[in-house]
Automatic annotation (TrEMBL), chain B:
Topology of the protein relative to the lipid bilayer: Multi-pass membrane protein
Record's GO cellular component terms: plasma membrane
Domain of life of the native organism: Bacteria
Molecular function GO labels: phosphate transmembrane transporter activity
Phylogenetic lineage: Bacteria, Pseudomonadati, Pseudomonadota, Alphaproteobacteria, Iodidimonadales
Encoding gene per record: pstC
Family, per entry: Belongs to the binding-protein-dependent transport system permease family. CysTW subfamily.
Protein name listed in UniProt: Phosphate transport system permease protein
Bilayer-spanning residue ranges: 40-61, 93-120, 140-161, 173-196, 217-236, 286-312
ABC transmembrane type-1 domain segment(s): 97-309
Alphabetized UniProt keyword annotations: Cell inner membrane, Cell membrane, Membrane, Phosphate transport, Transmembrane, Transmembrane helix, Transport
NCBIfam families recorded: phosphate_pstC
Function, in words: Part of the binding-protein-dependent transport system for phosphate; probably responsible for the translocation of the substrate across the membrane.
Localization terms from the record: Cell inner membrane; Cell membrane
An example Gene Ontology biological process: phosphate ion transport
C-alpha cells in the first residue's frame, strides 16, 4: 500500500469543523478485559469527547471491537467474560462496566450498529419502532413521528417512506445497514457505537453511511471501529490506535494521521504494518 | 511480496520438471468406474423408496375406487353414521374424522404451548449443559413404544381423570388426547428449538443492544425469526397425531361416535382400520374396501397438512 494522502483529507475536513472546548461523554480508565483466561484488553485509557467521532483503528485481533463492545456490555451475553477498571458515562458518572450496573439500563442509553446489517424479521417501520416500544412508547402518533425522524436521520426516509410495512429483508444491504442505524438512533442514545459499519457494504453504500456519520456527529457522540484508514481520516475527530490489546496512541485525527508521536502508529497508518 | 512470488515461481518450475503425477490411465479409468457404480447404486436406492411410496398410493387409490363405485363420495363425506358392518350400512366418514380431529386437537393443545415454551427455554435460557442433558431425555420420550402410551392413557390417565370428572367414560377422547400431546411433545420441542437456535446470534445481539430483555428478545425477535420452523414443528406434530394409532385404538374405544364431547369414547380413523384389519373380512368385500377409503382420507389429510406447512414455510421464510 502506498502512503495515503490522509493529511489532505484531514485538512479538507478540519476547515469545516473548528475545535471547541472539549467536554467528555465517556472516559475509559484502566480497563482490563478477559475472555476466560485470555486478557484481550490491557490497561486501556481513552476519553470519548462529546459530539465528536472517535475512531478505533488497529490490525485484526488488536481488541478494538472488544473495547467497543465493553461500552454496552455486549460481553455479558457470553460466559466467562470479565471486566476490571471503569468506563464512566457522563454526565451522570455511572461506571458502565461496574459489577452493580445493570447492563440492560446501559443499553437503553448506548446504541450500537453492527458489522453486518442485522435487521429484525419485521417490517421496516417495526424495526425502527422496536427500540421505542421496548421503552414503553406505543402511541401511534409518537411512534410515527419518531420513526420518520430516525429514518430521515439515517438518510433512508425518502427511499422507504412508501414501503414502511414491507419486510426489512426486502431492502438492499446498504439500506439495511442504514435501517439499523435508524433503529439505533430512534431511542436517541447518548452514545452511538459503530462496529465496522461499512465493512459489508459496497463503495457507494459506504460513502452514504460515512456522510451520515459525519452529519450525526453534530448531535451525537460516536465511537467507531474501522479497518479502513481513509474512513477514519475522513470522518473521525479523534483516533485511538490499538495493538495486541493495548492503546498505543490516542490523539486528534489530524495528529495521528499526519504526525503520530509513536513509530508503531506511523508504520500502521502509512500501511507499512498490519 | 517478492518472497511470495518466488515461492509460486518455484512451485511452477518444480511441476514443469516432474510432469503430471496422474499418468496411469487404468487408475483414472477405475476411478471413473467407481464413480459410476456409486451413482447407479445411490440412484437405485433413491428410486426404491419413491417406487414403494408410489405403489402404496396406487393401491390406496385403486381399492378406494371400487369402494366409491358402491358408495358415493357425497354420502361418504356427509353421512353422519359409520356402520359399514351392520345390515343397515352407512358409510359416513364424519364420526371417524371428528374423533381423529378431536383427539389430535387435544394433543396439540398440550404439545403446542408446552412445546413452544420448552423450546424457548432450551434455546434462549437454559445453560448449555442443562440443554445437553434435557434433549436426550426428551428424545427418549419419543422412543417409548406407542402401545405403552396407549395403556398409560387407558389404565392410568383415565382413572386419574375420573376422580375429577365422574362423567368420564372408560373409553374417552380426553385421556388419549392428553397422552398423545406428551407423545408428540419431543417432536415439537426438537424441531422448534432447532429453528430458534438457527436464528443467528447477530439478531439477538441487535435486540440486546437496543435494551431488550431476554424475554423480549425471545418473544419479539427469536420467535418471529424462527416462525417458519416453529410452524413446521406444529405441522409435524399434527401429522403424527392424526396418524397415531395405538394410543387411540386402546384408550378411545372402537365405537364410531359423532360427538364434540371429549369425555365420550369414539373410534378414530386409525382405530377403525386396526379393528377391521384384525377381523376376518373377505378380500374384495365392501367392508374390506372401507379401510382403503379411510386410509386414503387419512393420507389426503396428512398430505394437506404437509402442503400447508410447506407453503407457510416458504411464505414466512426469513433470509437473515
Amino acid at each position: 500500500m502506498k502512503d495515503l494522502d490522509l493529511s489532505a483529507l484531514i485538512e479538507a475536513r478540519d476547515g469545516q469543523k473548528p475545535e471547541t472546548e472539549p467536554t467528555l461523554r465517556a472516559n475509559v480508565d484502566q480497563l482490563n478485559f478477559w475472555y476466560g483466561d485470555f486478557q484481550a484488553l490491557k490497561n486501556i485509557n481513552l476519553p470519548i469527547h462529546d459530539k465528536k467521532v472517535t475512531a478505533l483503528i488497529g490490525a485484526s485481533g488488536c481488541g478494538k471491537s472488544t473495547l467497543l463492545r465493553c461500552f454496552n456490555r455486549m460481553h455479558d451475553l457470553y460466559h466467562n467474560n470479565r471486566y476490571e477498571g471503569a468506563i464512566t458515562l457522563y454526565p451522570e458518572g455511572d461506571n458502565i462496566v461496574g459489577a452493580k450496573t445493570d447492563p440492560m439500563l446501559i443499553r437503553l442509553r448506548v446504541g450500537m450498529v453492527f458489522q453486518k446489517p442485522n435487521p429484525f424479521p419485521k417490517s421496516i417501520y417495526e424495526n425502527v419502532a422496536a427500540g421505542l416500544r421496548i421503552r414503553g412508547i406505543n402511541k401511534r402518533t409518537i411512534l410515527d413521528d419518531k420513526v420518520e425522524a430516525a429514518l430521515t436521520g439515517a438518510a433512508l426516509w425518502d427511499e422507504v417512506k412508501d414501503r414502511l410495512n414491507e419486510g426489512a429483508y426486502s431492502l438492499s444491504g446498504g439500506q439495511q445497514q442504514r435501517l439499523c442505524i435508524a433503529r439505533a438512533l430512534a431511542p436517541e442514545p447518548e452514545l452511538l457505537l459503530l462496529d465496522e459499519p461499512t465493512s459489508a457494504l459496497d463503495p457507494i453504500a459506504t460513502a452514504k453511511v460515512e456522510d451520515l456519520i459525519e452529519k450525526l456527529a453534530d448531535n451525537i457522540t460516536i465511537l467507531i471501529v474501522t479497518h479502513n484508514m481513509q474512513q477514519a481520516a475522513r470522518i473521525s475527530d479523534h483516533v485511538g490506535y490499538m495493538h495486541l490489546g493495548e492503546m498505543v496512541e490516542f490523539d486528534l485525527a489530524s495528529r495521528i494521521f499526519v504526525k503520530p508521536s509513536k513509530e508503531q502508529t506511523r508504520a500502521y497508518v502509512t500501511g507499512r504494518f498490519g | 511480496m517478492s518472497d511470495q512470488a518466488a515461492l509460486i515461481g518455484g512451485a511452477a518450475d518444480g511441476q514443469g520438471a516432474g510432469g503430471s503425477v496422474l499418468v496411469d490411465p487404468s487408475f483414472l479409468w477405475r476411478r471413473k468406474l467407481k464413480d459410476r457404480i456409486a451413482r447407479v447404486v445411490l440412484f437405485l436406492s433413491a428410486s426404491l423408496s419413491v417406487f414403494v411410496t408410489a405403489a402404496i398410493v396406487y393401491i390406496l387409490i385403486t381399492e378406494s375406487m371400487s369402494f366409491f363405485e358402491v358408495v358415493s363420495i357425497w354420502d361418504f363425506l356427509t353421512d353422519t353414521q359409520w356402520t359399514p358392518l351392520f345390515t343397515d350400512a352407512h358409510y359416513g366418514i364424519l364420526p371417524l374424522l371428528s374423533a381423529t380431529l378431536m383427539v389430535s386437537g387435544i394433543a396439540l393443545l398440550v404439545a403446542v404451548p408446552a412445546g413452544t415454551v420448552l423450546a424457548v427455554y432450551l434455546s434462549e435460557y437454559a445453560p448449555a449443559k442443562l440443554r445437553e442433558a434435557i434433549k436426550p431425555i426428551l428424545e427418549l420420550l419419543g422412543g417409548v413404544p406407542t402401545v405403552v402410551y396407549g395403556y398409560f392413557a387407558l389404565l392410568f390417565v383415565t382413572p386419574l381423570l375420573q376422580k375429577f370428572m365422574p362423567g368420564l367414560n372408560g373409553f374417552n377422547m380426553l385421556a388419549p388426547g392428553l397422552v398423545m400431546g406428551i407423545m408428540i411433545l419431543p417432536y415439537v420441542v426438537s424441531v422448534s428449538e432447532d429453528a430458534m437456535r438457527a436464528v443467528p446470534d447477530t439478531l439477538r445481539e441487535g435486540a440486546y443492544a437496543l435494551g431488550f430483555s431476554r424475554f423480549h428478545t425471545a418473544l419479539r425477535v427469536v420467535i418471529p425469526g424462527a416462525f417458519s420452523g416453529i410452524t413446521a414443528a406444529y405441522i409435524l406434530g399434527m401429522s403424527r397425531a392424526v396418524g397415531e394409532t395405538m394410543v387411540v385404538a386402546i384408550a378411545a374405544g372402537q365405537n364410531p361416535n359423532l360427538t364434540l364431547n371429549p369425555s365420550e369414547g369414539a373410534a378414530t380413523m386409525t382405530a377403525y382400520i386396526v379393528q377391521v384389519s384384525l377381523g376376518d373380512l373377505p378380500h374384495g368385500s365392501i367392508g374390506y374396501q372401507t379401510i382403503f377409503a379411510v386410509g386414503l382420507t387419512l393420507f389426503v389429510i396428512t398430505l394437506l397438512f404437509n402442503i400447508i406447512g410447506f407453503w407457510l414455510r416458504r411464505r414466512y421464510r426469513e433470509v437473515y
